């Protein structure tokens, strides 16, 4: 297997394979700079080399005083918080206000005429994000992408078409500890087809004593069960552990068994490199409010490989927006089906959700994927190394150590009461989250987080743990 490489020329050390340890890269940079890798000065030096650092100013960073959980009377409330929760809700692009206000003004100024006029015309607004999303997900053309609904709604619409169980091929493969909505959606689809989930649901699990699901174990399940599997439906990045699944390899293995393969990319899009068309993924869907920074409840999107375009053997639920744009307003009795992924749309899109989506996607367009991946490699690697150097006896990292098997997020398990640690961090203006039973998730993101923020987080975490000892 050919490993991806990471271009770190801007950091002065050339190109490395992303299976290499970020620690080695960090030590090379430290040696060149004459600074200690564990020093705050070194974190500032990394920030000075960061080619994406200027993008931070395009986001609104919450102040400590505005956080409901902070002790603003004890800590400087005018300071920006340390925000590591982009895996749950990304920060707001400043342009979101501009675009939202403009759409609202279009509504007020022109009323019904906003359907075809203004910044994001209501009848056309879902077309604007498509060319930007094509690059982020690795689609071949815009017809493979549609912007619509929310993630779980889209999962259901896609499974209506792609989960077609037969007497012999009816099972669905998901990962153990899948995000609840995925499991609920899958189980409910099985019940609609009178498939007993106790028999039809296959969960890929970590080995005993391990946290991560090995790729070879997923491939073994597909080899052993594949002849009875109708659908493989996994997460691109596992929300709890932060593990990135090998989409290419798993998809290829599943297809050799005649399985349809779909992916939930909620924690993958805007986070890791994707090449959905090249990898022959049948379908995928995602949300836009995590790493895509498009606001809580932001509009979702789907990918449908062009191999499935125009094929009549995939039944679909249809609505007005399933009709081709060119004939939609002819109000035909029979649908003139839209091309590709757009045929899965049902109703007119919301311009008030497209507006913040565009504000964020335009920032991505200023951040070449190679630079995002390089910063992610070092930024998350820096967090990993600092934790292992300063807190190895207190914190266990359960996210894969190999960079190509993860994204931004690291998941920690503590040897003490996680709730109290989290509460104290929040009181100091550090925003992260916990997932029961025992994991804290930290996600430094390349578009707006700084190396110095990572340094400060680890130092504060060390102080909190020592104070509670």
Question: Can you give a write-up of this model?
Answer:
The protein has 469 residues and is of the alpha/beta class. It has helices spanning 22-33, 40-49, 95-110, 130-137, 151-162, 180-192, 197-200, 215-225, 247-256, 351-364, 369-390, 418-427, 451-467; strands spanning 5-7, 15-17, 59-60, 82-83, 92-93, 145-147, 171-175, 201-204, 229-235, 260-264, 283-286, 301-304, 395-397, 410-414, 430-431, 433-435, 439-442. It has a 7-stranded mixed sheet, with helices on both faces. α1 packs across α11 (369-390), α2 runs antiparallel to α13 and α3 runs antiparallel to α10. 45% of the residues are buried.
Looking at this protein, list some descriptive labels:
469 residues; alpha/beta; seven-stranded mixed sheet; four-stranded antiparallel sheet; 13 helices; 17 strands; 34% helix; 13% strand
Short description:
Helices cover 34% and strands 13% of the residues. It contains 13 helices and 17 strands. α11 packs parallel to α13.
* Biggest pleated-sheet summary: 7 strands, mixed
Q: Using DSSP, what is the number of strands?
A: 17
Q: What proportion of the residues form beta strands (DSSP E)?
A: 5-15%
Give the termini distance in whole angstroms.
Answer: 46 Å
Q: Count of helical segments?
A: 13
Strand order of the largest sheet: 6-12-11-10-9-7-8
C-alpha Rg (nearest Å): 23 Å
The helix-strand sequence is EEHHEEEHHEHEHHEHEHEEEHHEEHEEEH
Low-confidence stretches: none
pLDDT averaged over residues: 95
Shape: globular
Strand-pairing-aware structural class? alpha/beta
Please estimate the helix content.
25-40%
């Amino acid at each position: 297997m050919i490993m991806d490489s990471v271009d770190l020329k801007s950091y002065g050390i050339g190109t490395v394979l992303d299976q290499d340890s970020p620690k080695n890269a960090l030590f090379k940079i430290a040696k060149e700079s004459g600074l200690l890798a564990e020093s705050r000065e070194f974190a500032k030096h990394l920030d000075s080399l960061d080619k994406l650092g200027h993008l931070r100013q395009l986001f609104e960073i919450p102040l400590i005083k505005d956080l409901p959980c902070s002790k603003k009377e004890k800590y400087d409330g005018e300071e920006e918080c340390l925000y590591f929760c982009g895996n749950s809700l990304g920060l707001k692009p400043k342009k979101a206000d501009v675009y939202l206000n403009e759409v609202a003004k279009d509504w007020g100024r022109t009323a019904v005429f906003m359907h075809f006029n203004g910044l994001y015309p209501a009848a056309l607004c879902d077309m604007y994000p498509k060319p930007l999303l094509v690059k982020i997900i690795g689609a071949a053309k815009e017809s493979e992408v549609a912007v619509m609904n929310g993630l779980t709604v889209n999962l259901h619409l896609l499974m209506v078409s792609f989960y077609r169980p037969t007497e012999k091929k009816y099972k669905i493969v998901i990962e153990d500890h899948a995000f609840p909505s995925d499991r609920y959606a899958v189980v409910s689809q099985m019940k609609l087809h009178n498939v007993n989930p106790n028999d039809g649901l296959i969960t890929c699990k970590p080995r005993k004593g391990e946290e991560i699901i090995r790729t070879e174990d997923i491939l073994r399940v597909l080899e052993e069960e594949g002849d009875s599997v109708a659908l493989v439906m996994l997460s691109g990045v596992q929300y709890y552990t932060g593990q990135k699944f090998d989409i290419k390899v798993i998809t290829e293995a599943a297809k050799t068994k005649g399985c349809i393969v779909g992916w939930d990319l909620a924690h993958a899009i805007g986070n890791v490199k994707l090449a959905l068309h090249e990898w022959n993924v049948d379908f995928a869907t995602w949300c836009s409010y995590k790493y895509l920074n498009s606001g809580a409840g932001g509009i979702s999107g789907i990918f449908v490989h062009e191999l499935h375009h125009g094929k009549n053997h995939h039944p679909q639920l249809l609505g007005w927006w399933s009709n081709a744009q060119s004939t939609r307003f002819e109000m035909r009795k029979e649908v003139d089906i839209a091309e590709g992924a757009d045929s899965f749309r049902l109703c007119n899109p919301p311009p008030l959700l497209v507006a913040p989506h565009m504000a964020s996607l335009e920032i991505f367009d200023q951040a070449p994927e190679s630079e995002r991946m390089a910063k992610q490699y070092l930024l998350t690697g820096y967090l990993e190394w600092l934790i292992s150097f300063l807190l190895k006896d207190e914190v266990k990292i359960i996210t894969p150590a190999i960079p190509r098997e993860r994204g931004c997020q690291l998941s920690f398990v503590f040897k003490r009461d996680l709730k109290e640690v989290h509460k104290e961090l929040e009181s100091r203006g550090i925003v992260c989250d916990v997932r029961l039973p025992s994991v804290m998730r930290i996600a430094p993101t390349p578009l707006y987080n700084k190396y110095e923020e990572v340094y400060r987080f680890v130092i504060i975490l060390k102080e909190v743990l020592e104070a509670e000892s």
